[in-house]
Amino acid sequence: MALHVPKAGFSSLLKDGAKHFSGLNESTFRNISACTELTTVTRSSYGPNGMNKMVVNHLEKLFVTSDAQTIVRELEVQHPAAKMLVMASEMMEQECGDGTNFVLILSGLLLSNAEDLLRMGLSIPEVIEGYEMAALKALEILPGLVCSKIEKLSDVEEVTKALKTPVASMQYGYEDFLSKLIAEACVAVASDSRSFSVDNIRVCKILGAGVLQSSVIRGMVFKRGVEADLTRVENARIVVYNCAFDFMQTESKGTVLIKTAKELLSFSQGEEDMLEAQIKALRELGVNVVVSQGKPGDMAMHFANKHGLMVVRVMSKFDLRRLCHSVGATALPTMVPPSKEELGHCDLVHVTEIGDTPLTVFEQNRQANAIATIVVRGSTNNVMDDLERAVDDGVNTYKALTKDPRFVPGAGATEIELALQLDAYSRTIPGVQQYAIKKFAETLEAFPRTLADNAGVKGNELISKLYAAHKDGLKTAGIDIERDTASHLNAVEAGILDLLLNRSWGVKLATDAAVTVLRVDQIIMAKKAGGPKPPKQGPMDADD
Fold first, then answer.
1. How far apart are alpha carbons 259 and 256 in whole angstroms?
2. Which of 90, 280, 370, 376 is in the most buried spot, having the most CB atoms within 10 Å?
3. 10 Å Cβ neighbour count for 484?
4. Residues ≥6 apart with Cβ < 8 Å to 333
């Protein structure tokens, strides 16, 4: 009997159905093409005049936004090389909270320019070495471009100026109003700037009115009314229960044998007396607000109204924890009288109405609060979702300020200055790496060019004017998007500033992502697990 001789080559090592690609044309250029396509999607959304994308995800939820992180997350990118760029942008989101589009554009264009270098005859290691040299040099140059620094993170005016640029990139036209709102919320929460947590700034979205009717509340806001009759309590002492505000139930099942109607009446009366005694004990401790996670019982509500207690139901266990953090209370698992240490305190608990939405507000008037809430108004849910993303970017920028409060000029000024200095640096390198460094410098030109294209200005004319201004020593010259023609302005005087931390991490992560994709010389894809897909169900008969 003849033995089966497998086919020669690498494919013989793999199971049937596996795919294998190798070489420049099959693997490297394919990966570069996929990454470039992803960059093309998000590039038109860069800057204040960036275009919105309409994305419908797998759950048929509609997203209308120019936020690159939201776009790539909901696209669910499947290509393995493009996924590396998405992961780099996610890392940027974690580190700085903003600049995800910067990473996607820079890494995608670096790969596109690498393709030109490879077709010229450079090898992949030479291109990689040149890119890494250029990134290191850029990180050396960046601290020298610092133009300002925030001295006091507790000053609302200073923080407002710092937040304008990231907010304007999402909500151009409302940046002055929104950046002040975010600054007030962040400063109200940040008693110690080092311990600032992004989670302490909450967003409550209420449909109706317009963006300019948004406001900041020092404390927690819940989109529901109270359960009891009392709707306003000043100097509130609060007890928080994880359970329902009702009769206590025994843990084990029991049977009560009742023989006469008198015994039935006395049994029910005994339960009522016990419940009233518990609520009376709370009142004697000074408690005037009860917060429970479960539904309050009818009899408990009767006694709460009788003894003057406000009852609030908070169904989310996460919101319950945040409320405990805000008022300084401890959540109790059963309905027992709390100790003094377990009670929370709030200056004012009241019910109000915005539009037609009832709100329960736990408001603190002290200087440093544990939690602040930004009430966002908007005409549609999509508008409010985009406003929430702008708030999130602003809050994350404040978090980044606590790490490094230094700024570099915005409006494309930093990128042009880096390109100019890297171009000069490339001429000092004797090897072929100088071509890769020069391409890195050309890639940085793409940012002011993209800003110009999205603003409807001639890109080539603007780039030449910016280079001329920077060669004359004006390092802060950036694009003026409010003019109809290609013109520049002083970015620092205009208040257009970018975080140094943002640009440093952007250059690092984009270069690392591009280099990682370039290092891939083979793609090996195993056969997908599982059997064949079931056939689609057709019509039951010819008439359907």
1. 10
2. 376
3. 8
4. 241, 242, 243
Query: Is residue 461's pLDDT more than 80?
Result: yes
Going by C-beta distance under 8 Å and a sequence separation of 6 or more, which residues neighbour residue 372?
Answer: 184, 185, 186, 188, 189, 200, 201, 202, 216, 217, 218, 219
Tell me which range, 12-21, 189-198, 449-458, is most confidently predicted by mean pLDDT: 449-458
Structure tokens at 481: 């998007």
Residue 1: how many CB atoms within 10 A of its CB? Answer: 2
Q: How far apart are CA 137 and CA 116, in angstroms?
A: 22
Of 249, 252, 245, residue with least CA distance to 331: 245
Q: How confident is the model over 385-423, as pLDDT tens digits?
A: 888 888 888 888 888 888 888 888 888 888 888 888 888
* CA distance between the termini of the chain: 55
- Using 50, 70 and 90 to split pLDDT, how confident is the model at 544? very low
Query: Which stretch of DSSP H or E encloses residue 56?
Result: strand 53-56
**Contacts for 391 with CB less than 8 Å, ≥ 6 apart:** 178, 181, 182, 201, 203, 374, 376
| Nearest CA-CA partner of 334 in 442, 413, 425, 243 | 243
User: Could you give the CA distance from residue 343 to residue 236 in angstroms, rounded to a whole number?
Assistant: 10
Q: What is the mean pLDDT of the segment spanning 526-537?
A: 66
Please return the burial class of 490, using the count of CB atoms within 10 Å of its CB with bins 0-12, 13-18 and 19+. middle
pLDDT tens per residue across span 360-377: 888 887 666 678 888 888
Q: Show the tokens assigned to 48.
A: 């204040």
Q: Write b or e for each residue in 294-305: b if 16 or more Cβ atoms lie within 10 A of its Cβ, otherwise e.
A: eebeebbbebbe
Distance CA 267, CA 247 (A): 13
Place of tokens 């083979």: 522
pTM of the entire structure? 0.82
Structure tokens at 306: 């009788």
